[in-house]
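Database export, one record per block. Field names are fixed; values are copied verbatim from the stored entry.
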Amino acid sequence: MKKLLLVAASLICMMSSLSALDWGGLFTNTTKPSTPDFSSIDIYQSNGVSLWLSNRFNKNLRLSAEGLYKYELTINSNNNSFTNIVDLTLLKFVGNWNLANGMLSVNAGRFSYADLSSVVFNQTSDGLTLAFQNNNFKLSAYAGYTGLLNSLNVSMVDINPDATHNFYSLCPAYIPLVFDASLLNLAGNNISLQAEYFIAINDYIQNKFYADLTATGAIGSAASYSVIATLGSEDFKKFMIFGKGNISMYIGQSFIASAGAEYASGTNGSITAFKTISSRTAYNGKFLSATSGVIIPQCSAIFVLNNMVISLGEKVVLAMPETSIKLRGFDTNLNFVCNVFTDLQVGCSVIAYADLLEKANSNYQFVLNVSLAF
């Protein structure tokens, strides 16, 4: 860890001496009271500051870096916790070169990476991507390592048993290897196929394999669709399945309406409960919200006006841990974001999840986010 911070400091010092340096920062605040039944209220409070630097060496190559400090305070009836977090969230070399009527792109370092599904692996990671794209197809590959990430700031499904609870705690160590190929502009449609293999370095986690198929495209001039299908396995004897479909309609210049559904397998014979690498909540349950054993029809509406965005989303959560299906609950989200000034953004969310099977898993939240750039 000390070596990593020393390398980062050296690079930042090197960048500061260059004429093309840009820099800035951001103060953030998150305040979130929540309750399952309004008899008691839990409070989550976080404030932080992040600094970013960017330097362009030439028209093809640039370097970006970002670090942060924040604290997280949780107050509830059982216990209180206070956590300091320090993290290097971005340290990325980006290169783009024209090649053979297309574009060759390289990203190297620590940066955010998401697979085609944005469900299995979607997080900051240390690694390297290579991609080539022209008007007809795209080929890309990614290799990385998760064992140097801060688990206090990067949420993964597996938990490091040696994790600490302050400043910097290492994530479980996987080596992700990802390759994908896409056919572009097929009568307005894009079709992509991806293979993902996660090599487990720690003995408390297992190797995992996923294959993803996605299709996106336009439906006429005012609508679009997306379809995602994922097949995964830990041992190649039992398999896990995820699927999601969505249709969006664009009404005028300011309104978007969408509807769709997602499915994540439970346990049923040779099919096992779907498990991701990055932590993801399928709905806003207080303690149970994983992407497994569920069918979730959903719809949403987004309204954009000048410097404001308002969105409303509704999910119906159907539990299917094995073969039977039960209505689990309803999840409603109302979000508002406003750019008050060019450097000040204020947002708030009202979240209401009513669990019909386990009342204690119900969750009612109000979230206030404020960010000030400098």
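Remark 1: Residues 2-16 form the longest helix (15 residues).
Remark 2: The helical segments are 2-16.
End of record.
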